[in-house]
Design brief:
alpha/beta, seven-stranded mixed β-sheet, two-stranded antiparallel ribbon, elongated, 11 strands
Length: 404
């Protein structure tokens, strides 16, 4: 994409073209990407417990493909890809003899300590210690290593791989009673497994693993992890909702001036940054055609020269009782309502898109743009302030925002 440097762009007047708005969207997207951070996960477990399957099922990029991992020391391989803010360190070989296992343990300890001397984004942020559930036992070497990990001050999640039942089994209960130094024990089935021609065990537990991991991560790693994981779309929605709340507060302040309607593009520019951040959180690339279709669908302009004011005009017309502000001034309440409805509609569209992708389905651009406009109309007219499938613990918009 051939976009001029920001300093060479024309100053924002009381309106701007679709191309200029797309340029602003691009820069907002790149800025959001630059603030993603970095997340580093250390995965430990015997060869064959399903670590590669687990890693590839959690993250949108297949990190643990054969030949991709780079050996960084004996027994440790590093998995990452260009422009991916996730690095996975894998330590196979715990089934080796005692001397070889000791070497691996020392190398892992050294890796943790060496990374800790670097910037916080380079630290090992969490450990997934994997045990095959069907093995039905934890060996003494594994138990002792878990206890050694406790002094490293890195949170550990004990992952029971290839768990065929969602109900806690005897092995799970046994591990719980051992009071191991782990933050949580998470049974998972990373991929569906066909037992026979009549019965297949569905994938389960990945969403819980992702949520538990997120709770343990430092701030520098949270956004990167949420962006790259695909196992818990609700977690993406939650983080996007928090960003939306901040932009709703900002738009309320802008509107409280009040903003002369001729300067409505100022509000649109703020909302562009909001859309960019939500797009990054969902792990989607910047797609000029997608953004253009969304903006054109709302503005009704199709390919008009001036689009900033026309978008805001059409958005406001959909808010009950707010249509009279056109030609006058945008109040703080109207600006906040507009921004909230716009953000919620966009999150709903990306949720639908991600769910379809995970299920191997495809939504057309026409379907997505139609959904976007319909969702916005519904949120704007109903005054609803939360996502449709809101969980009981989902954060609400900040109390100081009055959009009544």
């Amino acid at each position: 994409m051939n976009i001029p440097p920001l300093s060479e762009q024309t100053a924002m007047s009381d309106d701007f073209s679709l191309d200029e708005l797309l340029n602003r969207s691009y820069y907002a997207f790149k800025d959001a990407e630059n603030q993603v951070g970095q997340c580093n996960v250390l995965v430990i477990g015997k060869t064959g417990v399903g670590k590669s399957t687990l890693i590839n099922s959690v993250f949108r990029q297949r990190l643990a493909e054969t030949g991709v991992g780079r050996p960084i020391t004996q027994g440790i391989r590093q998995y990452t890809k260009p422009n991916c803010p996730i690095t996975v360190y894998d330590t196979p070989g715990l089934e080796l003899n005692a001397e070889q296992v000791k070497v691996i343990q020392l190398n892992v300890a050294k890796l943790i300590e060496d990374q800790r001397l670097l910037h916080p984004k380079e630290h090992i942020h969490v450990i997934w210690y994997c045990i095959n559930h069907s093995a039905n036992r934890i060996e003494s070497v594994e138990e002792s290593w878990l206890k050694e990990m406790e002094v490293k001050d890195v949170p550990v999640l004990l992952v029971l791989t290839q768990t065929t039942s969602k109900k806690p089994g005897e092995f799970f209960k046994q591990l719980e009673h051992m009071n191991l130094p782990v933050s949580q024990i998470i049974p998972v089935m990373a991929e569906p497994e066909e037992i026979d021609e009549d019965y297949t065990v569905k994938s389960h537990g990945l969403d819980k693993l992702v949520d538990a991991t997120f709770q343990l991560l430092p701030e520098v790693a949270k956004k990167a992890f949420v962006k790259e994981q695909i196992a818990n779309i609700a977690l993406k929605s939650d983080m996007a909702f928090k960003y939306l709340s901040a932009y709703v507060a900002g738009s309320a302040i802008v509107g409280a001036t009040p903003v002369p309607f001729a300067d409505a593009p100022i509000l649109m520019t703020m909302q562009t940054a909001m859309i960019a951040n939500i797009t990054v959180i969902f792990g989607m690339p910047f797609d000029k055609g997608f953004i253009s279709a969304m903006l054109s669908a709302i503005s009704g302009a199709g390919g008009v020269t001036a689009i900033g004011r026309s978008i805001v005009t059409n958005l406001i017309k959909m808010i009950p009782g707010a249509g009279t502000v056109v030609g006058g001034a945008i109040s703080g309440a109207t600006a906040a309502t507009l921004t909230l409805a716009l953000g919620l509609a966009y999150i709903e569209v990306l949720k639908a898109y991600m769910k379809a992708q995970v299920n191997g389905e495809q939504l057309s651009l026409q379907q997505l743009t139609k959904m976007f406009v319909e969702m916005y109309k519904e949120y704007a007219s109903s005054g609803r302030k939360t996502l449709k499938d809101e969980q009981p613990n989902q954060p609400k918009p900040p109390n100081q925002i009055n959009i009544e």
